[in-house]
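Recall that a protein's primary structure is simply its ordered list of amino acids. Everything else, from secondary elements to tertiary packing, is in principle encoded there. The following example makes that idea concrete.
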Amino acid sequence: MEAAASPSPADELELSALEAQPDEQTPLNGAVRVVPASGEQARPVQAKKENPWSSCNRTVVGKCKLWMVITSVFLGLIVVIILSLCLVGVTYIDEDESEYLVLSSNKTFFIMLKIPEECMTEQLPDLLTRRLTDLYSTSPSLHRYFTSVKMTDFSGENATVTYHLQFGVPSEDDDFMKYMMSEELVLGILMQNFHDQNVPGCESLGLDPTSLLLYE
């Protein structure tokens, strides 16, 4: 077998130069390393999130911030709404109450009450006078027309007491007298009042329809 020829000195020098250069594909430590390009800065892993409420802290005028302006406008609207509701309640006028009637005539009724024997006392006539006055002066239907009430007769023997009721009414108004000042309405208001609230010390007074008599 023929012996291999020994390399020349020039070949040995070139071979040693190639072995001295590092591998361009694989780093010495075995890990891939990326070298950033010149002039490029490394980006952060996660961008900082912007606060969604930061816009409310912007200064609008002087030291006044945006959230202050929004709050002031909101509170101003609430105040305006409340004031509007108050003004509407104060300025509201009931058409029935504002209607002006010339009460040039008088309408008179007499009411006779039959009093049970157990209720016959000297204080009862005055008590009934105050009750009739309060009743018709506060009645939603008749308070504008009510004038006065006065006791005209008190009989202990017959156990009756009679009252004179006077109302102011428009003259020559048949519809008004028929619907607003009828005997049924005047008597019905009194009977309902006795049923709703008994007279102290005389619970049976006025409960019997036959014990009340209304006439002109």
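Residues 75 and 81 are 10 Å apart (CA to CA). The radius of gyration is 54 Å.
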